[in-house]
Amino acid sequence: MSLALRPLLHAAAILRPPRAASVARFVHHALAGLEDDTDVDALRVRCERELSERPPVDDATALRRLVAGDALQLLAHLDTVAAQVEAWEEPRVALAAAARRSADALHALGIDFDLPTVHVAPGLPPPYDPPFLVVTSFDRSDASRFGVAEGLHVDARRAVPFVAECAVAHALVHCALGQRSPHLLGRGLEEGLAELLGALHAASATIAAEAAEATFAARLLTPTLTERRERFLDAFRAACVLHDRHGIEGMARLVREGRDAVKVAEQAVASGALERVPLERTSAGTTLHEVTARLLARGRPIALGPLAFHLAGALRSGRRVADAARELALPLAAAESAARELFERAFVLVLSDEGEVLVDDLALLRSCAATRYELPVPAAA
């Protein structure tokens, strides 16, 4: 296995999500302090040692145990994942091939554009270089204005399997619109169309459709709330509404007609006047509609502190917190504090004044992975 552990573990965590609130933070914590980033055995030994240590007594020790347990589960599938992402042994080649295949999928929808050059380097050229982007598209106008090579620019530091392929496919929709309308700003509904047609539809020509869907969930359906992400999801929901009314052909037509048409549609959606969208009504079809319906229905998981997450596994209606604390060898005060979090902050159970669980939804939430443990932001982030 010649790929570094970071991209491999990240890819595995997308396909088989850990119980953590963030895949990226989970991978950072799992590999923190590991001297050799290709030494799978060293990571396995460290995880096994952590799980054999004394039971957790606070958030820090609970976090280490949870991360170790999840990492150990993923290590069992690493060979299978490595076979799926073996092209990443040459990232530039892999990303150029991904761009070609995704472009072919968009061309099949009648969205014609010149295949851009894919530039891979540490960092992104300004001014389109915010820390949350993996890929950005510079059209001819951008290239002239900012003195940057035209094409797709990929941040090699942040590019990992599945995420990068979806980001490249997303950026290709911006590229197609930029070649048609370089004088207009690409934002708003365009982001939703790029995610729908690019990251979910076109990327499926490069990675499996299931991987594209899982990548969307790992990136966007997390407990973290940010204004930027909420606006992005608003744009995606708007694109999904239009897709339901006008089908994938209608979405492709908007892109074919350029940013002027996209902005007319955006204005109609934002005004609540869907009848003013200049597209014919048609069926959305099934496959892509089913993917977007699943994603939009899922919502965000509930974030719990690591100790509260650990304690939740031993609680159920009719059980006292003190009994769960004894079973898990937790200090009673720490268990009581974690139980209050489950009640007052997460509202996944109700506690009596005597510390008995009166009613709960813990089993339901565990069965659909709707609770996740929080991880602190890495110091270097």
Tell me about this structure:
This protein folds into 3 domains: 5-86, no CATH class; 90-298, no CATH class; 302-373, Arc Repressor Mutant, subunit A. The strands form 3 sheets. It has a 3-stranded mixed beta sheet with strand order 1-3-2. With 381 residues, the chain is mainly alpha-helical. It has helices at residues 5-15, 23-31, 40-52, 59-75, 78-84, 91-107, 140-146, 163-180, 189-201, 209-220, 227-257, 259-270, 287-298, 306-312, 321-328, 332-345, 362-367, and strands spanning 118-121, 135-138, 151-155, 302-304, 349-351, 357-360, 371-373. It has 17 helices and 7 strands. Helix content is 56%, strand content 7%. α1 crosses α2 (23-31), α3 (40-52) packs across α4 (59-75) and α11 (227-257) crosses α12.
Order of SSEs: HHHHHHEEHEHHHHHHEHHHEEHE
Q: Any low-confidence stretches, pLDDT <50, length ≥5?
A: none
Q: In angstroms, what separates the terminal alpha carbons?
A: 28 Å
Strand order of the largest sheet: 1-3-2
Q: Work out the helicity level.
A: 55-70%
Helix/strand/pairing category: mainly alpha
Number of strands: 7
What general outline do the C-alpha atoms trace? globular
Largest sheet data: 3 strands, mixed
Summed up, the helix count is 17
**Whole-number radius of gyration?**
23 Å
Average pLDDT: 94
What's the domain count? 3
Proportion of strand residues = 5-15%
